[in-house]
Amino acid sequence: MKCIISNEEKTNFRKEHVFPEAIGGTFTIPNVSEEWNSFLGHSVDTHLVNHPFIKIARLSLGVLGKQRAVPNPFTEGVLVDVPGLRVRYRLKDSGEPESLEVVEQVERQTREDGTKVITITGNRGGEKQIADILNKILQRRNLSPLSDDEILKHTLAKSLQLPWIRYQYQINLEAYKIAIVKIAYEMACYWLGNDYLDEPLAEILRKCLRNSTPNNGGIGDHPVTAVIGLSGSYGLFPLWQDIPDCHITLLKELDGALWCGVRVFSVFEGYVQISNDVSRHRDHERFMVIDPVTGRFREEALQVELARLVDHSERTALQ
Question: How do residues 261-295 score in pLDDT, each as one tens digit?
Fold first, then answer.
């Protein structure tokens, strides 16, 4: 069997999740070799799966993914009311809040009179750890350690109700696009069959995917024709606003070419041109929707899906 990424005959294959398993993708195809399956995971899918916007979407929906745990996009931040105080927000595997912890910090200051001051910040209940840290500092300076009672005299406890936390993110708005191209290409291979592998645009898409790296995603200089962006930026999926949290993909003819549309949650969406020779493909317009929470997916002809939407709209208008 041919691997659709290398376009070569291979013997060892692994189920390839078209929409990554980590984001609730349950639809798989069989024709990606083990080698290229691993490559796609760490060099292509990673740019989508680890994007902060996707992590927040998974957390809000409780999508457990491959590791059976939701990601935590709020690992470490700074308290707004106490500038410089770093905190760590811990979540259970289910995504439910578990605790808010202060990140232990040691600050050294010298006052105008030459007095040296050491301030250690930690969590309530962590007095023993704070005492150990302080005494280690004193011992390194050949000073006598202090007793727990002496340290307790200088301990100040402070509580904040419903604290505001500030987080900083580096948002890459290009790297994830390679994963959208991957989804479009794999769906094209699935819907159009092995003959599609011989098309010039298929080879361009394969090369684009194979050149991706863990540190450098995006489409780059490859001659890929696509419109990809934040969901809603281009209005590519206006008919499916009633299912905002699902993954959608479809194959549609536009201006004599075949395009594959992809929507991931309500975060990213795009259309990728996958063929400029519509005559080679019969009954090509297809549709699939995946519920990332339940794992259920529905596939049918695009015309059937559009008829369903019209029927639903008419019945809603009559109610």
Answer: 999 999 999 999 999 988 888 778 999 999 999 99
CA 300, CA 318: separation in Å to the nearest integer?
A: 26
Closest by CA position to 63, among listed 299, 295, 297: 295
When pLDDT is averaged across residues 53-73 and rounded to a whole number, the result is: 91
Q: Is there a contact between 224 and 205 (Cβ–Cβ < 8 Å)? A: yes
Q: Please report which confidence band the pLDDT of residue 153 belongs to, taking 50, 70 and 90 as the band edges.
A: confident
Instruction: Compute the distance between CA of residue 143 and CA of residue 145 in angstroms, rounded to an integer.
Output: 6
Using alpha carbons, list the distances in angstroms from residue 51 to 63, 152, 182, 192.
Answer: 15, 44, 16, 30
User: Is 178:217 a contact under the CB 8 Å cutoff?
Assistant: yes
> How far, in Å, CA of 215 to CA of 46, rounded?
9
Burial of 184 (0-12, 13-18, 19+ CB in 10 A): buried
| Dist CA 261 CA 241 (whole Å) | 15
Among 54, 43, 56, which Cα is nearest to 269's? 54
3-state secondary structure 57-101: HHHHHCCCCCCCCCCCCCCEEEECCCCCCEEEEEECCCCCEEEEE
- Closest to 57 in 3D by CA, of 293, 319, 235, 315: 293
CB atoms within 10 A of CB 213: 14
Give me the helix-helix angle, 200-210 and 177-192, nearest 10°. 140
Strand, coil or helix: what is 315?
A: helix
Contact 287, 299 (CB under 8 A): yes
Q: Helix (H, G, I), strand (E, B), or coil: what is residue 35? A: helix
Q: Residue 102 class from Cβ within 10 Å (0-12 exposed, 13-18 middle, 19+ buried)?
A: middle
- 26-to-1, 60, 62, 148 alpha-carbon distances in Å: 22, 19, 16, 55
Q: CA-CA distance, 57 to 48, in Å (whole number)?
A: 12
Q: Give the strand pairing for 286-290 and 268-275.
A: unpaired
**Of 173, 287, 297, 183, which Cα lies nearest the Cα of 240?**
287
